[in-house]
Task: inverse folding
């Protein structure tokens, strides 16, 4: 079942946890590539100093202030695309970064995409998805395929690469299974 905008219009921390075990699906050259989401990171609101939204609305981050269920895709370090999904109510800037996943190849092998850049590179995700809604029409969406992740299976850690954010860097907003 394709996740609707309603799924993403929930508190960011809850949305992040609920994304674990869901499938990120990319239609590419007539084929669907599905990646099970195994790690995410939450960026929750205008006061979260690790979030791009903490500096106010701008051209780069304006998608975060929009509708839940839209992708926020940005370029970092001059070489990597990062894929986020906007969560919560409009004008409350929040998003979840999809950090890692597992894809099963056609021959049944498992490929671990352990990093947000590896994930976007594998799925050929770039700027054209920024601001687009997560659905089949855009060629990138999320699905619930019935995998139930229990709270006891979720590991919460501090976020990665945001040491500049002071106390916000230590918030346990990185979730993995």
Result:
């Amino acid at each position: 079942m394709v996740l609707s905008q309603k799924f993403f219009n929930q508190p960011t921390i809850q949305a992040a946890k609920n994304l674990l075990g869901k499938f990120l699906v990319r239609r590419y050259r007539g084929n669907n590539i599905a990646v099970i989401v195994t790690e995410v990171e939450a960026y929750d609101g205008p006061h979260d100093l690790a979030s791009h939204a903490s500096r106010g609305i701008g051209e780069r981050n304006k998608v975060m202030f929009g509708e839940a269920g839209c992708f926020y895709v940005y370029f970092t370090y001059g070489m990597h695309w990062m894929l986020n999904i906007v969560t919560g109510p409009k004008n409350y800037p929040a998003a979840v970064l999809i950090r890692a996943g597992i894809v099963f190849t056609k021959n049944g092998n498992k490929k671990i995409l352990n990093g947000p850049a590896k994930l976007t590179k594998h799925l050929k995700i770039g700027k054209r998805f920024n601001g687009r809604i997560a659905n089949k029409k855009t060629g990138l969406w999320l699905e619930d395929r019935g995998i139930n992740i229990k709270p006891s299976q979720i590991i919460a850690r501090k976020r990665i690469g945001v040491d500049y954010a002071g106390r916000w860097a230590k918030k346990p907003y990185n979730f993995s299974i």
Notes: Residues 5-176 form a domain with the 3-methyladenine DNA Glycosylase; Chain A fold (CATH 3.10.300.10). Strands lie at 23-28, 31-44, 71-76, 80-86, 94-104, 110-114, 140-143, 155-157, 174-176. The chain has a mean pLDDT of 95. The two ends are 21 Å apart (CA to CA).
